[in-house]
């Protein structure tokens, strides 16, 4: 919601997807002008033309995917990004205190029936490199944000990657 509102106010045409109707409803309250779609990413991407988007924002969606889904996800992102287009990625880091305490070896956990994966810097760089995205900027930050009535600190990787494949060839 916040990312789509910000991008729309900067003058971008925005399509925002989420399969959770509650998230869409909250985001529409923030900015009803954005084109919100309640749909699963993998169903949505089936109908998107190659090289359709100049910018794609992933705000912790990657953290909800299994290893089997991740490579397919980034390849799909790479195909719908225009040549020279950018992906902004915010992903939970293995440097996060929760990860260090609860899942240091396997780097994933379930919280309230939600699958959550944490990424090492190397793992994230390798995944992106496999899919035609060149990392332009990579930072790891700690950020506090409100969760219900308290403040929670999380550690994120912030990545800006550029599409370097001019044309995808289909086999």
How would you describe this protein?
- The structure is a single chain.
- The chain is of the alpha/beta class and 171 residues long.
- Helices cover 31% and strands 37% of the residues.
- It is built from 6 helices and 8 strands.
- The strands form 3 sheets. It has a 4-stranded mixed β-sheet with strand order 3-4-8-7. It has a two-stranded parallel ribbon with strand order 1-2.
- A hairpin with a 2-residue loop joins strand 5 and strand 6.
- The model has no long low-confidence stretch (mean pLDDT 88).
Q: How would you classify the quaternary structure?
A: single chain
Strand order of the largest sheet: 3-4-8-7
Low-confidence stretches: none
How would a crystallographer describe the biggest sheet?
4 strands, mixed
Rg over CA atoms, rounded to whole Å, is: 16 Å
Secondary structure class reads: alpha/beta
- End-to-end C-alpha gap: 37 Å
Q: What fraction of the residues are assigned to beta strands by DSSP?
A: 35-45%
Q: Give the mean pLDDT.
A: 88
Q: Output the number of helix runs.
A: 6
Helix and strand run: HEHEHEHEHEEHEE
The overall strand count is 8
Portion of residues within helices: 25-40%
Question: What is the overall silhouette?
Answer: globular
């Amino acid at each position: 919601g916040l990312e789509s509102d910000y991008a729309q106010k900067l003058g971008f045409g925005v399509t925002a997807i989420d399969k959770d109707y509650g998230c869409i409803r909250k985001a529409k309250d923030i900015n009803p002008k954005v084109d919100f779609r309640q749909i699963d990413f993998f169903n949505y991407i089936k109908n998107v033309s190659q090289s359709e988007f100049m910018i794609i924002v992933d705000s912790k969606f990657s953290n909800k995917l299994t290893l089997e889904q991740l490579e397919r996800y980034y390849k799909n992102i790479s195909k719908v990004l225009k040549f020279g287009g950018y992906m902004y990625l915010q992903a939970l880091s293995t440097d996060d205190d929760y990860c260090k305490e609860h899942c240091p070896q396997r780097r994933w956990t379930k919280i309230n029936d939600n699958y959550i994966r944490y990424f090492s810097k190397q793992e994230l760089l390798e995944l992106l490199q496999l899919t035609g995205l060149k990392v332009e900027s990579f930072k790891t930050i700690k950020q506090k944000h409100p969760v219900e009535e308290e403040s929670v600190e999380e550690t994120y990787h912030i990545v800006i990657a550029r599409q370097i494949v001019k044309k995808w060839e289909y086999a």
